[in-house]
Design goal:
Bound molecules: flavin-adenine dinucleotide
CATH topology of the largest domain: FAD/NAD(P)-binding domain
Strand order of the largest sheet: 9-2-1-13-20-19
Strand content: 25-35%
Shape: globular
Largest sheet: 6 strands, mixed
Radius of gyration: 21 Å
Structural class: alpha/beta
Mean pLDDT: 95
Order of helices and strands: EHEHEHEEHEHEEHEEEEEHEEEEHEEEH
CATH architecture of the largest domain: 3-Layer(bba) Sandwich
Number of helices: 9
CATH superfamily of the largest domain: FAD/NAD(P)-binding domain
Distance between the termini: 34 Å
CATH class of the largest domain: Alpha Beta
Length: 370
């Protein structure tokens, strides 16, 4: 008899978990349903940069997870047969305002490269070199090119993954579901029992687990980014991402599309309304590098809700007293980098019916859920 598995949440964690539940379950011993209510997802709003190596963050567990998460994309893209419309390894250019800081960072990059094949190569670029790689910039900064850096479109990425999951007999159900106090799920069919459940509800996880009397220590953060069209210029889609220090990232897509973002608004909560303040701030930041950009080139503003923990680190594992309810969340602003690997680990734990040893990636779940 098939085991019944539920995945709650169809963002990057839930979609990857659902895909691998279908992919790894070769004997079809599982009956998998993913529930997603289509509300305010972080993943769909994000145009993501996969380039954690030169981050200023000094959290070792986070770095291990992000480094392995970035490398994991190669496997995921192959396993799920994803095209370059959803994942493009175009390189990323990381800048520092102070030339001495840039030199130190380059030394750090060269050392990291020795142990990190996914970075592929690093190069110190002058402002002119950056201008050649990003020809639409009027004021290119000097920077470090990391050839292994990549960009993804969050919406297309999860759609492609869920499409592949469905081909492997995963059912996708667009609805909000709730726990009752006994651990069953209330769905449109009534109260349903599942053998195992993966919770991947992002910023909404506090509400998901409240009926089971758990307190999840995550808070929402609003993020906005702008999509622009570059006027009358057409470049190949293979341009690298610019990651300027203390400013907004500039992500070229397709031939004449730019994405600029993102904001980090702690007081924005779950609000999904675009604001003129964010629009102005992001455009001003981008104009520091391309002075020709104008307000009328903004095609749309995207808004999403990230989930943050107190130590800004993601967590995953199982509920403190219930190994059949697994969960992952608190991904913050690097969730497109860390989320797929978490989804894969959780799916493997279900398929193999064995929990992994994950303490090199995350503190115990009891740190985040009481
Ligand atoms: C503007 C912006 C830019 C970003 N840029 C980057 C970047 O450059 N690089 C990077 O690595 N990361 C980036 N991120 C972060 C990244 O997008 C998130 O950390 C990640 O996508 C979170 O994924 P998740 O699966 O945990 O949650 P989500 O994507 O939020 O998915 C959770 C889903 O669960 C659903 N749900 C909740 N409760 C229920 C319920 N009871 N029943 C059914 N469904 C439910 C929600 O509606 C949602 O669809 C960015 C985020 C934003 C907002």
């Amino acid at each position: 008899m098939q085991k019944r598995i539920a995945v709650i949440g169809g963002g990057i964690i839930g979609a990857t978990a659902a895909f691998y539940l279908g992919y790894l379950d070769q004997t079809q011993s599982l009956s998998v349903t993913l529930f997603d209510d289509d509300l305010g997802q972080a993943t769909k709003a994000a145009s993501g940069i996969i380039s954690p190596w030169l981050s200023k963050r000094r959290n070792k567990r986070w770095y291990t997870l992000a480094k392995e998460g970035a490398a994991f994309y190669r496997k995921l893209v192959t396993d799920a047969n994803l095209g370059t419309n959803v994942y493009q390894q175009t390189g990323t250019i990381v800048t520092r305002k102070d030339p001495n800081d840039l030199d130190s960072l380059f030394q750090e990059a060269e050392i990291k490269l020795r142990h990190t094949p996914a970075m592929r190569s690093v190069a110190l670029l002058s402002s002119q070199d950056v201008g050649k790689r990003l020809p639409f910039l009027t004021n290119p900064p000097a920077g470090i090119l990391v050839e292994g850096g990549a960009k993804i479109d969050g919406l297309h990425f999860v759609e492609a993954l869920l499409d592949q999951a469905q081909k492997r007999h995963v059912e996708i159900s667009r609805q909000r579901v709730f726990f009752d106090e006994s651990g069953k799920l209330r769905t449109s069919k009534g109260l349903e029992s599942f053998d195992k459940i993966i919770i991947a509800t992002g910023a909404w996880m506090k509400g998901t687990l409240k009926p089971l009397n758990y307190l999840v220590k995550v808070r929402p953060q609003k993020g906005q980014l702008i999509d622009l069209t570059i006027k009358s210029k057409h470049y190949g889609g293979h341009l690298p991402v610019l990651m300027p220090e203390s400013s907004s990232d500039i992500i070229p897509f397709e031939h004449d599309k730019l994405v600029v973002g993102a904001t980090h608004e702690n007081d924005g909560g779950f609000d999904l309304k675009p604001t003129s303040e964010a629009r102005n701030r992001l455009l001003t930041n981008a104009k520091a590098f391309d002075q020709h950009l104008q307000m009328d080139q903004i095609d749309r503003v995207r808004v999403g809700t990230r989930a943050y923990t107190d130590d800004f680190a993601p967590f995953f594992g199982h509920l403190p007293d219930n190994p059949n309810i697994l969960l992952g969340g608190g991904l913050g602003s690097s969730g497109l980098t860390t989320g797929p690997l978490i989804g894969y680990f959780l799916a493997r734990a279900v398929v193999e019916d064995q929990l992994g040893v994950w303490d090199k990636y995350t503190k115990p779940i009891s740190h985040y859920i009481i």
